[in-house]
Amino acid sequence: MIRTTRLWRSVAVVGVASLALAACGGDDDDDDTTGGASPTAPAATGDGTLALGTLLPQTGSLAFLGPPEFAGVNLAVEEINAAGGVLGEQVTITHTDSGDTSTDIASQSVDRLLGEGVDAIIGAASSGVTSTVIDAVTQSDTVMFSPANTSPDFTDYPDNGLYFRTAPSDVLQGRVMGDLVISDGYANIGIMALQDPYGEGLAENVQISVEDGGGTVAGEPIIYDPNAANYTTEVTDMASRNPDAIVLIGFAETLTMIPELINQGIGPQDVPLYFVDGNLSNYGDQLPAGTLDGNKGTLPGAETTADFQARMLKVDPALADFSYGPESYDATILIALAAVAAEDDGGPSIASRLVDISKEGEKCTTFEECVGLL
Q1: Cβ distance 251 to 224 under 8 Å?
Q2: Residue 121, beta-bridge partner list
Q3: Alpha helices, DSSP H only, in the chain?
Q4: Nearest to 222 by CA among 198, 196, 240, 203
Q5: 321-356, pLDDT tens digit by residue?
Q6: How far apart, in whole angstroms, are the C-alpha atoms of residue 188 and residue 62?
Q7: Roughly how many angstroms between the first and final C-alpha of the chain, as a whole number?
Q8: In this predicted model, what pLDDT tens digit does every residue of 131-167 receive, in sequence order?
Q9: What is the average pLDDT score of the chain?
């Protein structure tokens, strides 16, 4: 998918996955996937009202992802409640800020949400932030469902069966990025990545993909501190390796990195830059015109159709980007459907049905339609 909206005119974006909104129902041979309480379901712990919380970026290095994620959640809650809610009651939602790993905002937000007794938390967006609070959430018997975590670390994380995500692992994004750079004709690839589970995990998978595709990585990936005052040393190191292209895995510090790359003669008009979802933002007002022309990036996630964009814009008319909006919508809808299937809004009950209601069965695209199938 090539994004051609005005917001993205400087960067071509390659979508790497397409997610169905939900799938409900089950195989006639498996009574446990047809809806209703499972015979092996956890004891009911809900109070009858599905209470949701969000842990999404209002501030920090991923704040640009916050608006579409909040809009996706709010759209889902509106549609759920318009269809009668869950278990006969309206779903409630409490929004909080995740900040980033340079602050303690996420832990404070989680304490607030757990204190309110939410049944599920949607977030965080940052894998690094999630790693700081996942234990507190899952050990409290609360579902944690991220719309944007891509770190491979969470694939087999000891989460008591309570952590889920609608974004694909960076094993996939790394593979697509490596294929993209090699297919564009570059053989000696520089990799620069921020130091956190997301950055290091994605760098590792990009390297694997580049080497599997017959290319080479210009030395080991350069792992940098995202909170550093400048990146002169790291860029000097990269310049000495003479890369054909550079994969830059980062967040907001990208705006500090790019001018230094330009100063040292390996900027995006000298050596092509490849961005990832963490820094695929609109930098048009913060860099000289034309700085990013011709450069590319990968965005793991669902294609945002015109119809879905229109629905999100009704929730937030100021939206200029829709990244991870569909995944946020899906996470919210799936939690609600799992509560319906379990006939209980408690976290363990929801978790016990999330896999069943999101695979096989019949495809459905609205909460009301999916509940009908259940």
Answers
A1: no
A2: 53, 144
A3: 66-82, 105-116, 127-138, 170-183, 197-212, 232-239, 254-263, 306-315, 325-342, 347-354, 367-373
A4: 203
A5: 898 999 999 999 999 999 999 999 999 999 999 999
A6: 30
A7: 33
A8: 999 999 999 999 999 999 988 899 999 999 999 999 9
A9: 88
- In order of 57, 66, 73, 344, the CA distances from 37 in angstroms are 35, 35, 26, 8
Evaluate whether 146 touches 130 at the Cβ level (below 8 Å). yes
Q: Closest by alpha carbon to 339, among 113, 78, 42?
A: 42
Residue with tokens 């790394």: 174
Task: Select from 71, 137, 61 the least CA-distant residue to 328.
Answer: 71
Q: Which residue has the tokens 């669902």?
A: 302
Q: What gap in Å lies between CA 331 and CA 311, rounded to an integer?
A: 17
CB atoms within 10 A of CB 78: 16
In one letter, which amino acid is 170? D
Asked if residues 138 and 96 have their Cβ atoms less than 8 Å apart, the reply is no
Q: Which residue has the tokens 């009911």?
A: 44
3 state DSSP class of 216: strand
Task: Give the distance between the most distant pair of CA atoms in the chain.
Answer: 65
State the amino acid at position 125 in one-letter form: A
Measured CA to CA, the distance from residue 83 to residue 85 in angstroms comes to 6
Contact 264, 236 (CB under 8 A): yes
Kindly indicate the confidence band of residue 40, based on its pLDDT and cuts at 50, 70 and 90. low
Integer Cα distance of 131 and 149 in angstroms = 10
β-pairing, 22-24 vs 362-364, is antiparallel
Q: Which of 61-65, 176-180, 235-239, 274-278 has the lowest mean pLDDT?
A: 61-65
